[in-house]
Amino acid sequence: MPLLGAHVSASGGLYRAAEEAAALKLDSFQFFTRPPQTGRAPEISELEAEKFLSSCGKHGLKTWHVHAPYVINLASPEGRIRGNSIRLLREELERADRLKSRSVIAHVGSAAGNDRETGMGMVIDGIRDILRGYGGNALFAVETTAGSGHTLCSSFGEIAMILREIDSQKLAVCLDTAHVFAAGYGLETQEEASKTLGEFDGTVGIKNLIAVHLNDSRVGRGSRRDRHEHLGYGKIGSEGLFSLLNHRSLKDVDFIMETPNDARRKEDIATARRWLSGEMFFPIKKT
What we know:
By secondary structure, this protein is α/β, with parallel strands linked by helices. It has helices spanning 15-23, 46-58, 79-98, 116-131, 156-166, 177-182, 190-203, 238-245, 265-276; strands spanning 3-7, 28-31, 63-67, 103-106, 139-143, 171-176, 209-213, 216-217, 228-229, 254-257. It has a single domain (3-276), classed as TIM Barrel. The strands form two sheets. The protein has an eight-stranded parallel barrel, surrounded by four helices. The chain has a two-stranded antiparallel ribbon with strand order 8-9. The longest helix has 20 residues, at 79-98.
């Protein structure tokens, strides 16, 4: 059975992320080890790492994932930005490994200032540099994107290209339901979700999938905008998300919610639990 998680805050100390996940009765969780809009972060001390791991163990949390900061762009035409992105992502892998994280999930960047083919080549070379000599257990997971502007990896073909060109056991993939829907892939019904999952398996390979970001979408299919919504309240709706969560091929995948962090967040977790138990529950009346 899949593990259910959500993005939680590490504000006030990394162990706080585990405490929040436990308070929400989650099996898994995702967090930032540094502020998402900056590349600066203090070193993780031995004491802080031990406190974090102790908290995870105390609360029986099974897995966790680090989300890389948003300042990353491996396809930037500016050498300084690209170089800092490579350095930062390698640092995050090392930090995540120290925290026994299952993966570092990253948006790889945008080809603005380059053509798409050149941008993808830069991303592939950048990931090679990040993984060179890396011997840790935390995997580098490339996240699917909504495809706004010149953002890369909105298509399964681009994700597959990275895996094919690098061919490393340290690479994995995170599929974000809101992103792939916004990029044009169908998820609204069981039939559409199965079709999209089949296309993903035929190009990227489900064997490479380590996590699913389980989000509904405020915007329509093919809108190419990244707008998350509460489960069952968006344009994807309950049927397709229920189908993915219960798909037999995804039983070893962690499902991490990134829905809006407001009063309905606990409702999302309760909804996902009901879906995981096999109950086809609609948070709002289906129209």
